[in-house]
Amino acid sequence: xxxxxxxxxxxxxxxxxxxxxxxxxxxxxxxxxxxxxxxxxxxxxxxxxxxxxxxxxxxxxxxxxxxxxxxxxxxxxxxxxxxxxxxxxxxxxxxxxxxxxxxxxxxxxxxxxxxxxxxxxxxxxxxxxxxxxxxxxxxxxxxxxxxxxxxxxxxxxxxxxxxxxxxxxxxxxxxxxxxxxxxxxxxxxxxxxxxxxxxxxxxxxxxxxxxxxxxxxxxxxxxxxxxxxxxxxxxxxxxxxxxxxxxxxxxxxxxxxxxxxxxxxxxxxxxxxxxxxxxxxxxxxxxxxxxxxxxxxxxxxxxxxxxxxxxxxxxxxxxxxxxxxxxxxxxxxxxxxxxxxxxxxxxxxxxxxxxxxxxxxxxxxxxxxxxxxxxxxxxxxxxxxxxxxxxxxxxxxxxxxxxxxxxxxxxxxxxxxx
Length: 418
Description:
alpha+beta
């Protein structure tokens, strides 16, 4: 059975015009889609050189996203989870990212890199995160408030990742530049020329990041230091280590995914606390008591990464819809996080929500749940503590400039004052 967009003629999740609409209108459209009996199918435009155009079923209910996330055997991450799917030659040139793999390959890589996110590793990082947050606020006070994204939100996550990996200081400006280019590739295709240009820029940026860390990895394999690159290229007690290409792919993934979640949440969060002064007052009245719930509610409300794609591997019935092998589904986390059957009054920002931990802002439950979720929480907690302790009057000023994207809920700039 194929359900077409005829049931909602003014909604087309595969068209750029939908993602140009204000967030409030998009949330209202997803609310309408959640009321439909079956997931809706959306046609995609075919773009030469890109493996795309087959169309997809939109999974917009919380229960559908959770079901697909838990059942990775049927809802495969291969060949790719992003839109548009890259052509097959890309993985042969750049290697495969862990997010685009199923078990057992995914399980092997996750087992190796998970050491970066162990409780012991995160505890060891806390001092460095605090020092970085202090320097950032020092600079904000010295420079004066201009743009919260460039002065605060974009700085801490990349700094922390570079510290973890052991990236030298003189390489970090280039890392930041390449990450910005990578995240500008939206996955929404406004034109053939722009699609091809953005895809090319994205690939060149990712290739540069990979070359950078592979060169460093070769150096660390000869002379290991106490950083993550050294650990990943040196065999552990089980004899497992990353290959050079795997190291390059992991670094690119860590920079893009690890950066965007914390960065987006911090930037959106300042605006949310400004627009909801009673929630801001509650948070600052007892920071330690409320910051945990505030972070989860921000991630739910914002959904920093808005969607991932899956490929169906076998016949499967989902909420009365028969899916066939090769069908594509897209898990819309932003819609699942506004599902009124799970989150009452979902458009209300409430840092005391008791059900907030059911959000899928770090991905749905299952093998692909975000490895760096606790690191992102740690960064946001530490940065907000430093900001609101030293600059208690800090507030957003004006409306944010958002990235035009169907994938990355990114704030390009946000004015602020203190």
